[in-house]
Design a protein that fits this description.
Radius of gyration: 21 Å
Strand order of the largest sheet: 1-2-3-4-5-6-7
Shape: globular
Largest sheet: 7 strands, mixed
Strand content: 15-25%
Mean pLDDT: 87
Structural class: alpha/beta
C-alpha cells in the first residue's frame, strides 16, 4: 500500500506547475462553446453563491479571485467593481475558466464587465480573452499584444514545459492506474486523470486572442469615482508586464512580476526585473494582489525578491564567464541564504530554466 500511494503521489507531482503551486492540479469546469460577458447573464443581478471562485474583498470594491473548485484557472484574477461596470485583471487559462469567473461575478454584482486586462502574455493569464465581445476593452502593453498575436502564448519553451507534456502525462497516469490495487490510491489518481483529460479538452477550445487596447508606458481610466492606472515600468517577468494601480484604494495588481513565492523566470529579464521592481516600490500602496498566491501587505517581500534575483544573476554571470554550462551552473549556484524568505529552498541549486534564460540573455540569444 505504501508503495502504491508513493507512486500515485509521484505522478500527481508531475501536475504541479512552476507558475504557481498546483495550478494544474485540477481540471473540470463548464463545457460547451465559449460565450461572452453578455451571454453570462450579468444583467440579472447578483444571485446565489460563487461556484468556482472564492472572492476576497481586499478593499471596498476590489477583490482577489482565487480558484476554489476543480476548475483549472491557472492564475489569480483581480476584480475591480466600479460604479457602473467591472474591470477584470487577467482572463485565466481557458474560455471555460473565463466564463466561470464572469458567471461567478453574479454573486457580487450585476454590473457588466466592460474592461479586462492582461498583465502579460503567458497562457494562464490570457487564454480567456476570446470570451469577451468586441465592446469589452482588453488592455495590455503593446509587447503583450504582439506576443499573443504572434502565437507565443501557445507555443515555445514555456508553453511546452507546462502544457506540451499533458498527453504523455495522461498516458503515464493511465498506465499507472492499471497497476494499482489500493482503492484510495486509485481514487486519487483517477481524480487527477479526469482533471487532466478535462483540461486537455478545454485546451482544444482556445483561440489566442490579442488585446484590443494597448499602452506603451501609461494609461488611465476614470470610472465613476475611481482612478485606475496601468503602468509599464520596464521588463521583468516578460517584456510587457503591466501593473494595475488603484491610487485611491492603495492597491497594486501585479501579475507574475510578484507572486506568493518565487516567480517563474523562463521568459524573464532577471537583471532588469530588479530595477523594474524599484520603480514599483515608488508607488504609494498598502496591498499587493499578486499573479499567484494570496494578497499581502508586507512590502519587504519585494526587497526579498530583489535580493534573490540579484544573487541569482550575479552567480550566473560568474559561472557563465567561466564557461560553465547552464545545467552545471544550475547545480552549483547556492541560494540558501534566501531560504528564510522562500520556503522551497532546501539546499544548493537553482531552477535550471531560470539559469538557462539568464545564459541566453548573456549570450544575446533570448527571445
Amino acid at each position: 500500500m505504501a508503495t502504491a500511494r508513493w507512486t500515485t503521489r509521484r505522478h500527481l507531482a508531475l501536475l504541479v506547475g512552476v507558475f504557481a503551486t498546483g495550478w494544474l492540479g485540477a481540471g473540470c469546469g463548464p463545457g460547451g462553446e465559449a460565450g461572452g460577458a453578455d451571454e453570462a447573464g450579468m444583467d440579472d443581478g447578483p444571485t446565489g453563491e460563487a461556484v468556482h471562485f472564492e472572492f476576497t474583498e481586499v478593499v471596498p470594491g476590489v477583490y482577489h479571485a482565487r480558484g476554489a473548485s476543480d476548475l483549472v484557472v491557472g492564475s489569480n484574477a483581480g476584480v475591480v467593481v466600479n460604479e457602473a461596470d467591472v474591470l477584470l485583471v487577467d482572463s485565466h487559462i481557458s474560455p471555460a475558466a473565463a466564463n466561470a469567473l464572469i458567471e461567478d461575478l453574479r454573486s457580487l454584482t450585476d454590473r457588466p464587465v466592460r474592461y479586462a486586462a492582461n498583465t502579460h502574455w503567458h497562457f494562464d493569464h490570457a487564454h480567456g480573452n476570446q470570451v469577451y465581445p468586441p465592446e469589452v476593452e482588453i488592455i495590455s502593453h503593446e509587447a503583450t499584444r504582439a506576443a499573443i498575436a504572434e502565437g507565443r502564448s501557445n507555443s515555445g519553451r514555456s508553453y511546452d514545459l507546462f502544457v506540451g507534456g499533458i498527453p504523455d502525462r495522461i498516458e503515464q497516469m493511465e498506465a499507472t492506474l492499471d497497476t494499482l490495487s489500493d482503492a484510495a490510491a486509485r481514487a486519487e489518481l483517477e481524480a487527477a486523470l479526469e482533471a487532466q483529460r478535462t483540461y486537455y479538452a478545454q485546451l482544444q477550445e482556445v483561440v489566442p486572442t490579442a488585446p484590443n487596447t494597448t499602452l506603451s508606458e501609461r494609461l488611465t481610466l476614470y470610472r465613476g469615482g475611481r482612478e485606475i492606472q496601468f503602468h509599464f515600468f520596464g521588463r521583468a517577468h516578460t517584456e510587457g508586464d503591466v501593473i494595475v494601480y488603484l491610487p485611491d484604494d492603495g492597491v497594486i495588481i501585479t501579475g507574475d512580476m510578484l507572486t506568493g513565492g518565487l516567480p517563474y523566470m523562463g521568459d524573464g529579464y532577471v537583471n532588469e526585473w530588479i530595477e523594474t521592481l524599484e520603480r514599483v516600490k515608488a508607488l504609494d500602496f498598502d496591498w499587493i494582489i499578486p499573479g499567484h498566491g494570496a494578497p499581502y501587505q508586507d512590502r519587504e517581500r519585494i526587497d526579498h525578491l530583489q535580493a534573490y534575483l540579484r544573487d541569482l544573476w550575479d552567480q550566473s554571470v560568474e559561472l557563465h564567464g567561466q564557461g560553465v554550462s547552464p545545467e552545471d551552473a544550475a547545480a552549483r549556484i547556492d541560494l540558501t541564504a534566501h531560504a528564510a524568505n522562500f520556503g522551497g529552498i532546501s539546499g544548493p541549486g537553482a531552477n535550471p530554466v531560470a539559469v538557462l534564460r539568464i545564459f541566453e540573455l548573456l549570450d544575446g540569444t533570448a527571445n
